[in-house]
Design a protein that fits this description.
This protein has a domain of 38 residues. The protein contains one helix and two strands, in the order E-E-H. It has a two-stranded antiparallel sheet with strand order 1-2. By secondary structure, it is α+β, with helices and mostly antiparallel strands. 0% of the residues are buried.
Amino acid sequence: AISIPLRHIHQTIELAHKGDIHHCIELLKAALLQLDKHDWRFEHTWNKEEGGKKGDDVLGFL
């Protein structure tokens, strides 16, 4: 989660530092640019030597 530090969040005088907002945007932009470099497939690699079998779930209970 990315959040911006705020003061007086539930009041009409809510405050945030412009630099914090800018840095949050830059962090989010950098993270989004890295998305295509990650393998998002959800596959479990099973190992026969460890007694695993094809179809075993990552969490072990599904």
